[in-house]
Amino acid sequence: MRVRVRFFGILREFVGSKEVDLKLNLSDPITVRDVINALQGALGKNVSEKLVSLWNEYSSLLILVNGINIRFSKGLDTLVNDGDEISIFPPGGGG
Amino acid sequence: MIIFNKERYSRQLPIIGEEGQKRLESARVLIAGVGGLGSIVSIYLAASGIGKLILVDPDIIKLSDLNRQILYTSKDLGKKKVAVAKERLQSLNPEVNIDTLDEHIAEDNAFDLVKSADIIVDCLDNWKTRFILDEAICKSKKILIHGGIEGLYGQVTDIVPHETLCLRRLISEPRDKEFVPVLGTTPGIIGLIQATETIKLLAGIGRPLINKMLVYDGYITEFNIIELKPTQENLYFCWGECHE
User: Of B1, B75, B151, B223, whose CB count within 10 A is highest?
Assistant: First the structure.
């Protein structure tokens, strides 16, 4: 299965990348959590740990699977399908 | 009867037409916050000939505001933002009617403020107040132009009743940071897009950022669009039950 993960905002500084195409050799069902874990291998730098921490502790992370906010579906257990695009984005709060 | 100055708007009349200009002149726009984003939004909306601007901000002008809040000068330190903003905007365009309120947007005034406007522009600097505003938006079924910034990053999207998710359900509820660093040009860029969206929606031109989140990255000078796909179930929840 192939998925594209796009990073936005200040997250880009930590991740050091705008986007990454992942090929996952996992058996179905595959979740957003699996994708985040796979980012560790692709990007290193404790990326998975950082993302899960942001997700859990601060509600500061917007994660969209094909434009749908996973916080209002099954969170990190939301299912991911071949060809999906995942956008990860800590929105700017200043004005 | 609506009469606008054709010479003042002569460069934009070919774009929005006389009908569009009349729509601007009959519009009431609430600008929530006249800081970095609100400075830019209010200047361009006043210049465009919006009939009534309602400026809401409780703050006074501080030295640390002046890297980005271009409505104000060093001579304005210690003065109320909305008072100085009104004076500047009125001198820019005396045809615009400007109301001000130097108070926080809170549960007890948000609904009445929102109800008094056709479009609300989110130029706030914290999520807590944004979600108070969002609740009033949902109850009154008004359009909100959301903008937010941090560093050299920012985002804009239009919240439209029954077409998009409300802000709370779109973005969840991020925690506010005590200090948000901002390069002065970032609210300039994001605020300009918010002002453009407001004019487009009022005049009925172009394709607004409905179910699209525009994200700006100033480090590499890049704009991206995140396509948003609200489900019918979530739309119903946002505009029916979410805030009840």
Answer: B151
